[in-house]
Amino acid sequence: MLWKLGSFEDRERPNVGNKAYQLGHLIARGFRVPPGYVIPRVYLDELLLHNQQQDVFRRLLEDDGVLNRFHKLQKLIMGLELPALLRAELERLLEAYGTLAARSSAASEDASTSSMAGQYSSVTGIQTIEQLGDAVLSCFASAYSQGVYVQGNFGEGTAVIIQQYLAFEVGGVAFSESPDPAMERDVMAINAAPGGIEQIVSGISTGETSMVPRYGQVKPGKLLSTQTLLELRQLCSELEALSGGPVDVEWGLLRQQLYVVQSRPLTVRRKELDQACIVDIDDIAACSALDLGELRDKHWRWFDKKHHVRHACRKAGVNVSKVSYLLSPADAAQAGEAIARLSRQLGTPHLEVYDGRAFHLMAKEKLHSFCSRKTDGFATPLRLLVQEYIATQCCGFASRDAEGNIYVESLPGGFRSFWLEGSTPTTYLLSPEGAPLHEKLQRVDSYFRFDSQALDFVRVQVERAEEHKLTQRQLAAIVGLTGQLSALLGEVRIEWVFDGEEIRFFDLSEETRPLVETLGLGTVLSSGYAEGQACVLDDIHTFDALFDDVLSEVDVVPKAAFLELVQSEPCHALIRSVLQGADKPIVVAEYPKRTLAVMTDHVSGFVFERGALLCHLAIILREKGIPALVVEDARQAVRHGAQLSLANGKLLNHEEQGVKR
User: Fold this and answer.
1) What's the predicted TM-score (pTM) here?
2) Residues 573 and 500 placed together within one structural domain of the fold
C-alpha cells in the first residue's frame, strides 16, 4: 500500500509517476532528499471499491457530456472514506516524521515536453491524521481537473507522495539553463526566498533571483552566499548529467544542508509569438498550445464553466455565440489583417473584449482602434479574448419540471432586472409539446434596455405599467430549446435571450432537484419545512461590500473565491451582526440577491417580497434544501423576532395566530 521512496523498480514508473520515480532515483544515488513513501496510482481503484463508488466514478469519467464533470469527480473523490488499514499506516508516518507534506506524482508530470506545473495538488505542514487524509484525497482528486483534461492527460490518475516536511530556512527554484529565450544558455537562474519553496512556487513572493554563470566566478546575493550559490550550481550540473539535459530543481536549505525537493527536465522554451492567429475558444488542442499570458486564468475558468455546456449545445445543434482568441506579434500589418478577418467572422454589431484585466464592450468597428491603443500602435504583442455580444429585448430562464412540463420566466430588457433588481418575472407553465397550462403575467413599470450609445443597459421608466407577455412563437422556441437540452443533459436551467429576431441560447447551469415547485408559479422558490425566529433584513445590499469582484463566483457549483469568502472572519462577523444571536432564523428580505448566499449555512429559510424561481440564489437554496417563499410586503407584515413557519408553500406567522411555542 505504501512504497518507500527509492525502493521501487523501473517497471513501476507508470504506477508511481515521474516525480516519485525521479526522487527515488536521486535517493539511490546519494542525493539529499526528504524521506517519504508513495501511495501508488492504482490505489484509487481500491478506495472507490471500498466505498462502492466505482460505477459512479466510471460513468463520470467516460461521459464527456456531463455538466460540472470535473467538480463532480473531485467531489466524489474528496468524499471517500479511507480504509482503517491505510489510516493506521498514515498515523505511523505522522508518528515517525511529525510534520508531513503530500504531493501528487502523475505519469505526465515532470516530463521533458510538459511539466504540468501547478495542475496537481501539493499540501504542506500536515500535522493531524484528518489533514493527511484530506491531503491524500486532494492529490488523487487533482488528476481530474480541467487543466489536466486540456493537456490531454485526463483519466491517467496520479500517485501520492508523502514526505517528511522540512521547514527550510531558505528555499527556491533553480534552472540549470535560463528559461528566458533572451538569455544565454550558459547562465543558470537561481530563485530564492526566506521561509521555503512554497513562497516561490505559489507566487506569494518573487524572491531574489541570481543569474549564475555555468563557469567562472559567482557574486553573492542578499539571501545566498557565494558558497551556497556554488553548491547549487554544482547540484544543477550533476542533476543535468543524470537527466541528460537542462533541469528545473526545487531546493531547500536547512542548517547549511542542501536538499532536493523535486527535479524535473526543463520544458522546451516557449516559442515567441511570430504570427497573428485567431483561435476558437472551443478548440482545446489549439488553445493549449497558445501562450495566452494574462488571459490564461480566464481561460481555465471559462473551460471549467463553459466548455462542456458549449460542447453539449453544439452536439444538440444549438447555436452558441462565437468566442475567439486574437493574438498577434508587434506587427501592425499582421494585427490589422487578423482584426479585419475576425470582425468578418463575428455576427453581432457589438463585441465584448477581455484584455486580461477587464471586459470592454464596444461597437465592432471600434475593435481596430481599441487594439491599437492597447499595444501603443501595435508596438507590443496583442492578446485578447473577443466574443459576440447579444443586445437583448427580453430574456429569462427555463427549466423542465418533474412531469416534463416546461417552466418559463421572462422580463423585458437584460438579465440585470433579475440579478440586480430581483424583479418578479412573468411565468408560464407549458406542456412538453408547448401547450399552455398556466400563466402568471406581471405588470412592469421599469426595466433595463441596451443603449448602443452608452454601451450599457440603462433603466427605462414606463409611464404606465404594462403586462409583459411572450408570443406563442417565442414560447414555442423556448420550449423546444429547453426540451432538447434537458433530454441531453438532464435537469438544467436554461438562460435564453430574444435579440429582436429569434430566441437564442445564452447559458445554462445544473438543476439537480426536479422543479416540483412550479405549481406555485414563482411563489415557492424552494419547497420544504422550516421554523424559526424572523430576521428582517431591511438593507438588501448588506453583504455587497464583501464581494468586490467575486460576485460571479456565487454559482450553483461554488467557486474557490466564494468558498474562501464565506469562511472568512469579516463574513462571519457581518452575519453575526445581522442575525443578532438568533439560531437558524428565517430571513425576511426584499428579493433573492446573490450575495445572500453567504447566509445559507446559518438560516433555516427565506421569505422574499419578490423574486424568480430560476434565479441563482433560488437554485442554490434548492440544492441545499432550504425553503423559500415569495410573499408580497413581507417586511411590513412580519415583526423582527416573530416566530414563523414555512410549510406546504405557505408562511405561518404564529404571532398573528396567537400560537404559543
Assistant:
1) 0.69
2) no
